[in-house]
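Open question from group meeting: does this chain pack into something compact, or does most of it stay loose? Before anyone orders reagents, we agreed to write out a predicted structure and look at it together. Recording both the input and the output here so the notebook holds the full record.
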Amino acid sequence: MKKRLLLASDFDGTVGVGGQLEKDRAAIARFRAQGHLFGLVSGRNAAGLKEMRKKTDLPCDFLLSDNGSVCYLPKKGEKGQDPFAFEENSAHFDPFCGGKLLFYHAGAEELFFPLADFLLECGSQMVAVNDHNGAELLYLEEDGSLSVNLPRESWIARPFSQMSGLFERTEDAHAAAREGEKRFPGLVGLVSDCLDFLPRGRDKAVGILELAALLGVKEEDIFTVGDNFNDLAMLRAFRGFAVENAPKEVKMQAKEGEIPTLSHLIDLLLSKDCVNEKENRHE
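Structure tokens returned:
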């Protein structure tokens, strides 16, 4: 029986880099045509990731947002076979994101205000809070001047899949992540372009593993590709590749090393898949 592979790709800085979008899109289509599963896993919120997938016309079997805390399946009827069949009028259909909400993990409501205050104390230029629907920008500093997007008195405490801050220097974001994890043991801080705090025990690797279990895909058949620090968990945990524009520290920790682009990786996987299929026929 032919193996079904699962390829989870970061979006920003990984898909379509260097004018490669059409090549990546065509490669993804070939990959899925062979019965394999492809999806995006991102630090973006659910609505933002869905919108970017729509704009780029990327064929996907799943969308993992908020660094693995939220998982959606595209609605039935899109190109390719959906892993799960569901109808738009079913209880599982979410009209906001146009798909099935497979799982959603959230941090405790009582951490909402303390974490927002902590980010501001650390000098964050932004505070944004995510849930399974999307994101709400609470605070934004523009051009060095203070600009409150929503008055503090209108902020509403609630569980969140992710709360994010923005720092000018990566080292400041890493320092705030370490301090935040000490102050809030129930949360973990991940650094990419933003500093994202999400429920302890969640990251891209955990989200992918949870999804793979539901899809019946074995761990050894999971491949990942990314370009940033928040991708490290999945690049270490599975057969992970870093694209060539990734920082040196990320490339060094990717289990399978460096790959030029997403389309190169897919061509490699399909080439190996063809070899394995031929070998199986001769056994």
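Observations to bring back to the group:
The helical segments are 21-33, 46-56, 112-121, 170-183, 204-215, 232-237, 248-253, 262-282.
The longest strand covers residues 135-142.
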